[in-house]
Amino acid sequence: MDNSGAYFVAGALPEAASPAEPLPPWTSTQVVGARLPRVDAYERVSGTAVYPIDVVLPDMLYAGILRCPHPHARVKSVDLAPALALPGVRAALGPASPGADIPWYRAQGRAWSRLLDPHCRHQGDEVAAVAAETPYQVADALKAIAVEYEVLPFVLDEEQATAPGAPPVHEGGNRVGEPAVYERGDVAAGLAAAAAVVERTFRTACELHAPMEVHGSVVRWDGNRLTVWDTTQGVFAVQAEVARALGLPLAHVRVIGSYMGGGFGAKLEAGKYTVLAALLARATGRPVKLFLPREDTFLATGNRPANRLTVKLGAARDGTLTAIEITSLGAAGAYPASAAATFMATELYACPNVRARDETVFIHAGRARPMRAPGYPQCAWALEQAMDELAGKLGMDPLALRLKNVPRTAQRRGNLPYSTAGLEECLRRGAEAFGWERARRARPGQGTTRRGVGVAACFWGFSGGPPSTAIVKLFPDGSATLTMGASDIGTGTKTVMAMVAAEELAIPVERIAVEHADTGTTPYATPSGGSKTVPTDSPAVRAAAAAVRRQVLELAAAQLKRPVEELTLREGRVVAAADPSVSLPLSALEGLQRQGVLVGVGTRAPNPEGTVTVPFAAHFAEVEVNTATGEVRVLRVVAAQDSGRVLNRLTFDNQTLGGVVMGLGFALTEERILDPATGRMVNANLHDYKIPTMLDVPVEMACVAIDRPDEGFNSTGTKGLGEPATIPTAAAVANAVFHATGVRVTDAPITPARFLAAAGGKRG
Ligand code: MOS
C-alpha cells in the first residue's frame, strides 16, 4: 500500500529469535484504559526535561548552514576564507570540501544529489557550513562566505512541470517515475448505470512542517565512535543513515533520542545537518551543536505536497455507489518523494468500479516528506467533498449516503475482511454525540452570518507489525525498568507503554521507569510514525513484562511450595488465586533477591493472515461563516475514532484533539506561498505561515472513543490513532461551509479571499 515504506519494512522479523508466546486478551484491566497523566508530565511542563536542543557539552562549538537563496542555481565559486578569518570561527565546509560529495536523497537506485551540491534545486538547498565558538559568530561567518551563483530558470507549478520546455529539476524530465494506476471493475459502465454523477477538481495547499522543536543535532566524537543527540522519530533510522554516510560501522554510531519536540513525519530520517555537524566536529576535534533556525526548517525540512485531485462519483437512486474515479497530480519538490494521494478513495466506500491514478512531479521547491497521514487528508478533502455534493444531488443526507456505502472488506487488498471495522460506529456514534439530525435541520443563521454542519470520514492504511523488541527488568524491591527503542514523539508513548507493563506486572505505573530511544542501550524499534507505534510496540512490551511475570510466578511457586498454575499477581504481590491468605510481596521473593534482577525479553508476534487491520474515524464540524467578509469560524468539532483498545483515555483525547487542530490548519490557514516572479517562499516564518493558535481552536471539541479492542490483531487489541485523528477534519469543515452558505470552496485553505471568490463565481 502506498506511503508505508517510510515507517516499516514489510515482512521484517523481530529481533529475538524466539517468537513471542501468544498471550490471551486481557479480560479486565486495572491500569490500561485509565485516564492517567503522563509519566513525564512534570518534567515536560516544568521545563526540566532535556530535549536535544537543550544539550550543552563541555568545549562545544556551534554550527550553521548557508543555503541557496535562489529556486534554481549553479554554484560557480565559494570562498570560505573571509569566514575562516573571523574571530571564533573554527571550521568551514563548501561543495569542494572533504565529505561534501557524500551521496544524499537516494531513491530508485540512484543518489539524486550530494551533501553540499553545487547544483542547487530549491531555495534552501545546502551550500556551505561553518562551526564557531558562539551562535553569533556562526551567523557572522555565514554572511561572510562569498558565493557566486549562476541563476537558472525554474518551475514551481506542478501542472507546468511537465509542459514542453519546462526547466528540468533533474536530468531526464520532471516526472518522478511513471504514474501509478489502480483499477477494478468497469468505471465507464458504473458511470453509465448511475442515476447521479458528480465531477469536480480540488486543490490542496502545500503545508509546511512546524514542530515545536526545530530540527538539529548535537554530535561528539570519541575516537572513531560518534554519539548523536538528535530530535528524531527514529533513532535506529538515523543511526543507519549516518553510519552509511560516514562509512562507519553501525556500532560506532550511537543515536540518543530522549525527549523530542514533535516530528509529524519530518523527523523519520536523518538530516544533512547531522552529517555536516559530524564533519565539522571531526575537523575541529570538538563537539558540535547544529540546530536550524525556524526559517530554514520551513525551506528545507519537508512539507505535505500540494495536490490537484479530480474526483468523479456515480451512484444509483438509493445512494449505492456505482463508480469512483480519482486522479491526483502532486509535487515531490526538488528530490524524489511520494505525493500519492488516491489510496483512501479505493477502499473507504464499497464500490465495484474504481479507477485511481497518481502522478508525482519535480518542481524547484523544498522536498515533500511524510506529514501526518501522507496523502490522506488531501484525498479526504476531495473525496469527502464530492460525497457531500453527491448526497445533495441525490437529495440524501450526507451521513446516510456514507452509511449506505460502508465497506465490509478491504476491497483493494484481496477483499479480506477487516479484523475490526468501526466506520459505521464512528458515523453513528459521532452523529449522536454531535446532535447531527437536529443541527442539520436547524436554520442556517440570518443576514450575513450563516451556520452549517458537515461530516467527513476516513480510514488510515495500516496498523504496523514486526519487528519490535522490548526488555523489562524487575528489581528486588518490586520496581521495574522498561527499555524500548521507540521514540515518544509527544503522543504519550512512554506513558502508555509503562501502563502496559504495569498491567502485566500488577504494579503501579509509578514503580516503572522507562528507558527509550537510544541505539546504544535499547532494542531495535522502527521509527515512531505511521500511527503504528502503539499497535507495533505495545505487544512487545506486554510480552516482555509477561516473560518477567512467568519467572516471578515460578520463583514464588518454589518458595511457597504451591503449583505455579495456582498463583497470580495482584497489587505488587504474588497471591494464590483460590486462597488469598497465601500471599507474598514481590520484595520478599527470595529468588529475585539472590539474582538481583529478573529480565524479560518480548517480541512483537507477526500479524494474523487473512484479515486487514486499519483504524477508522468520522469527524463532524459546525461553522459560522460571515458571507460579507468570508471569515470562517469553527464553532465545534466531534471526532469519533475507532483505534481498537484505548490504553489511556487522556492521551487518546490529546492525540485526537491535536489531530483536529492540525486539520483546521489544513482547512483554513496553512499554505506555503511561493513568489512566482522570484521563486522564493514569502512566508517562511511563524508569523506569515499560519498554524492555528489558541484563538483559532473551537471551544467545543469532543472525542468519541469507540474503544473496541481488536483482539485478533495483536495482544493489546490496539490500532493506530495519530493520523486518523487529522485526516477528515478539513473536509468536514469544507462541507459545513457549504451547508452554511451553498458555496463549495474547492481549494484549500478556505481563506476569506477564496471564499469570496467562490461565492462570487456562484452568484455570477
Ligand atoms: Mo508520520 S507522517 O506518522 O511520522
Q: Which characteristics define this entry?
A:
32 strands; globular; 764 residues; alpha+beta; five-stranded mixed β-sheet; seven-stranded mixed β-sheet; binds dioxothiomolybdenum(VI) ion; 17 helices
Task: Explain what you see.
This protein is α+β, with helices and mostly antiparallel strands. The strands form nine sheets. It has a seven-stranded mixed beta sheet with strand order 3-7-1-15-12-13-14, with helices on both faces. β26 (567-570) and β27 form a beta hairpin. α8 (376-394) packs across α9, α8 packs parallel to α16 and α12 (493-505) packs parallel to α13. The two termini are 43 Å apart. The relative contact order is 0.14. Residues 233, 263-265, 268, 370-372, 374, 529-531, 722-723 line the site of dioxothiomolybdenum(VI) ion.
Helix fraction, binned, reads 25-40%
Q: Radius of gyration, Cα only, in angstroms?
A: 27 Å
Total strand segments: 32
- Low-confidence runs of at least 5 consecutive residues: none
Q: Main β-sheet: number of strands, strand sense, barrel status?
A: 7 strands, mixed
Into which percentage range does the β-strand content fall? 15-25%
> What sort of overall outline do the alpha carbons produce when their principal axes are compared?
globular
